[in-house]
Write a structure and sequence with these properties.
- The chain is an all-alpha fold.
- It has a domain of 42 residues.
- The chain has 2 helices and no strands.
- The termini are far apart.
Length: 79
């Protein structure tokens, strides 16, 4: 990366200083907004928890034998 000129360093330090001064105020605004949203609607009806990684069974599905499937010896399901 190219070295910064003294003017660029000064500008960067000013911006970083403004961000450092604004951060606590922005944190308060976010916290206040979260409290207000929880008071206005205590339960979030549109919330869907994230799924853990890996295969997940859907309702009605039967678990598969992972070892048999890995070596190709799994038998097809019987009707």
């Amino acid at each position: 990366m190219a070295s910064l000129t003294p003017g660029q360093r000064a500008t960067r330090e000013r911006f970083e200083g403004m961000i450092a001064l604004a951060a606590p105020v922005l944190n308060l605004v976010l916290g206040l907004g979260e409290r207000i949203s929880r008071i206005a609607e205590p339960t979030d009806h549109e919330y869907y928890p994230i799924r853990p990684g890996g295969p997940q069974l859907l309702p009605g599905e039967e678990p598969l034998d992972a070892e048999a499937e890995a070596d190709g010896s799994a038998e097809p399901p019987q009707p």
